[in-house]
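Suppose you are handed only these lines of text.
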Amino acid sequence: MKSLLVTGGAGFIGANFVRLVRATRPDVRVRVLDKLTYAGNAESLAGLDGVELVVGDIADADLVDRLAGESDAIVHFAAESHNDNSLRAPEAFVTTNVVGTFTLLEAVRRHGTRFHHVSTDEVFGDLPLSGGEKFTEQTAYAPSSPYSATKAGSDHLVRAWVRSFGVPATISNCSNNYGPYQHIEKFIPRQITNILTGRTPKLYGTGAQIRDWIHVDDHNRAVLDILERGVVGKTYNIGADQPEVTNKQVMEMICTLMGDGDEPVAYEHVADRPGHDQRYAMDASKLRRELGWAPRYTDLEEGLRATIEWYRTHREWWLASKEAVEEGYAARGQ
Ligand code: NAD
Ligand code: DAU
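From them, the structure of the protein bound to DAU can be written out as follows.
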């Protein structure tokens, strides 16, 4: 692989992926295709040599066709990614997540480009709060929100293009990521930056919901493994298999880590998310068994400490957007 196209490479996971590729695959030429929506930030790629940013839309067929023809492989991160936004304004989710993925697949079909599609555990819906059941690659799709429904649709398109047209594609479905460069609309960075700006952290509902947290670098090492050694046509679940924690527990960890001595920061309960998924849990044993992948971040508290430090020392990256993000949440009682 000499030339790699990364869609959504100015977003959270994509930018961390580009950084990983630059650090570990110095001979690969990296191009990023990113529309720079509210969630994209060219600054997330600052200081990287040999990375070209093409500002454009994955639903632009002419542009995508040219870039696919000039690339050996595409890793597809670009998406509208926030559930709360999809409840308010779902149209962009259909356009980007479904039509954008279709546009990429058509280009890949013409050029034979290797394609890796980055998806989410949310396509499987949710699990009951109690019980040890986990999502496997065989779990039936049952998405709950407009966001997860459009991601499920894009996964189905990829499988159909593999089977019908022989497109050389793989898919990965990963659980909740955390780490540097995550947009401050998301749970963990929202609470960290609330505290850093003197605002009260906000927990939806009772906070009983469970997410299966994984550090973004562990997710991205898995994506690279699948791209380089995965079996074309296959799907891989990605998850760190860590002790389960509720949102309330994660909130309390953050409030303790950022508190004053023994005094944790106080937080408040706000309106719950409509249709809120209860519990996610990934069975990633296939990835571990077949590709030898294992997570390196196995202590959530340590990972949170490092993430808090990143936001503390990178205010210039997030501060300008904080007020507008919070105004949007306040308008919805959150
Ligand atoms: P993000 O919102 O931080 O970044 C998305 C990027 O895509 C942004 O840079 C944005 O500008 C770009 N983009 C949006 N629409 C575009 C378009 N039409 N054309 C080109 N670029 C466009 O998202 P993220 O959290 O980094 O997620 C990346 C991918 O990983 C998504 O496909 C998401 O579904 C998936 N995923 C995310 C998580 C998570 O916890 N964040 C977990 C599993 C899977
Ligand atoms: O599971 C993978 C998914 O994880 C990805 O596909 C999505 O792109 C990503 O956004 C994430 O979805 P969630 O909806 O789980 O993440 P979010 O950070 O929005 O919320 C995590 C949990 O925290 C969720 O149960 C809602 C809750 N929450 C969220 C916010 C923003 C709060 O309690 N307070 C908040 O302020």
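What can we learn from it? Residues 218 and 296 are 6 Å apart (CA to CA). Residues 81-83, 120-122, 175-176, 186-187, 190, 202-204, 209, 211, 247, 273, 280 surround DAU (ligand 2) (CB under 6 Å).
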